[in-house]
Structures are given as structure tokens and as C-alpha cells.
Amino acid sequence: MAKIKLTKNEFKKQRDALKMYKRYLPTLMLKKQQLQAEIRTIENRIEERRLEKDRINETFKSWIAVFGEAGIFTVNILKIAAVKTALGNIAGVAIPLFEGAEFEVAGYDLARNPLWLDRAVERMKEVLLLDLEAQILEEQRRRLDNELRITTQRVNLFEKIKIPETKANIKKIQVYLGDQQTSAVVRGKIAKRGMERASR
Question: Using CA atoms in the order 29, 34, 37, 38, what is the torsion angle rounded to 10 degrees?
Fold first, then answer.
């Protein structure tokens, strides 16, 4: 605990500080709750994307054999051209928002390739979109987790250190100022008695 001055000015300063801590603490606690709720929502969305990807991959399993047909399905048939994101804000934290992606599909001859190739490319796009969205959601969670850690530290600082420390300082100053006032009254009475004796 830092050394404090035992003065009326310090007493006022400590009371003002206590008022400020008590005013900001509920705001910080509210922000902490909001961040926790948002993180849970994002985690649920990540899980939904994972389950959706698993469902699509399950339908792909029946197609795996045809992917092996010679020269039909090449590795470079589908590429991500661009990922579209925007900037959002949750509880004062800047987060990326997934808005989609653009793909480049390698040209292929519709007459010489099987009909399922179009459907396979669309399913691959769906899986890639889910992966990209999950990555953006993970980044959102990472940023919100970081802000939650900082906010929790501030809540703990106010709750466990600053408010109790300031209350103790106020009490210490009050006791000291009370003792000084009592001492001044006693000195005044002693001086008054001395003057009365001297005037007799």
C-alpha cells in the first residue's frame, strides 16, 4: 500500500477515487458478462460449422470412389480467390466478420466430364466456406478471450485491491483527523483553563 498523506485534501481525493471505482466497477462487470456471453455464442457457432462440415463430408464418403477416376478430379480444380470480411464491434472490441469468399474454378469440359463433377465442386465450396467461416470465428473468439482476460483483471483490480485499499485509506485518514480534532479541542480547553487561572 502506498504511503498516503493524512490531510483533508487527501481524504477528499480518496473519497472521489472510491466513488469513481464504484461507478466504473458495474460497467466493467457488465462488459465481462457480455464478453462471456458472446464467446459462448461464437463457440456454439464454431461447433455448428464443424457439425455441418462433418455432415457434408459424410455425404462425400459415398463419392470417394469416383474421385479416383483418372484425370477427372484434379487438385487444382478449385481455388480460393478472395475471402470477404468486414469489421465489427462487440463490447468495444474490433472483430472480423465473415462475409463470404470468391472461388476460381478451373475450366473443364462439360461434355467429357461426368455430371457429378459440378456437384462435387459445389460441395467443396460449401466445405471451404465453412472452414473459412470457422477460421474467422476462431479469430473473433481469440480477440474476445484476450479482452475478457484484460477486463477480468480490471474487475479484480477494482474489487480486490483498489476499493478495499481506498476504504482503508479513508478510514485511516478519518481516524487521524478525528484524533487531531479531539486533540485540538483538548488543547483548547487546557488553554482556556490556563487563561482562567492566570486571570484570577
Answer: -140
